[in-house]
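User: Please go through the entry that follows and flag anything odd:
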Amino acid sequence: MLALPAFAQGTLVLQSDFGLRDGAVASMKGVATGVDPALRIHDLTHEIAPFDIWEAAYRLRQVTPYWPRGTVFVSVVDPGVGTARLGVVARTARGQLLVTPDNGTLTFIAADVAEVREIDLTKHTLPGSERSHTFHGRDVFAYLGARLASGQVRFEDVGPTRGTTIVRLEVTPPRREGAKVQGIVAMIDRPYGNVWTNLPAAMIDSAGFRVGDTLVVRITDGRREVFAGPVPYVESFGHVAPGATVAYLNSLLDLAIAVNQGSFADSHHVRSGPAWMVSVSRGRPRAP
């Protein structure tokens, strides 16, 4: 893990599926700036696929370890906005806060969640927005996130505690069976089309796979096989010719499959999620 600053009060990081064509993101930033003009407001991404809670959850897992204690994240991918779904603030063991609908967005960082509090909407709604029921990203989450980041509201004052209870998406954990490992396609690395699995480096190592080996990779979508074949396991893309398929450890140290200067996902019509299974076994061992 990188050495990070000890504390970062006043730092607000926003994520959504709003895109940048309309005024949604600017409205959120305007509300946050109105709470405290000194806030440092950053964008995680606003290009999450519409309604894709899985991707939002994965991006939090990808990014939060590299932000310091005290950072407040606001993540809004909220197809249930205006319904009985809860808004929550999660405090992590790293001392970060995440403000989000409780709809599965916290799934991939659940192990790091130390406490969750339900947002009391009678106390933490943007004044004048009481009749607005379709933009909690602005009226609740950005507003409260800014107040938390600026120190105007304490975590303990958000609302009643829920312990560590959160809604979780279905995730198939990786497993090893002898010299074979199995997991899922956790994410497509856009714009490149690399396929990121949830198979961690430690499991790859324990199975005896080493850089220089040829792996046998099989990917299915729950109904049919979309790819099966030998793939060289190397350190980076340039170790194979352009257009060749390659296996490597991605920046999160999980196994990934790519095409050098091409798109593996597009070539084989691969998507991500719990139905997309990956198995890897030993092919030709590396030369001694």
Q: What stands out?
A: The first helix runs from residue 24 to 35. The mean pLDDT is 94. The domain at 175-282 is CATH 2.40.30.90 (Elongation Factor Tu (Ef-tu); domain 3).
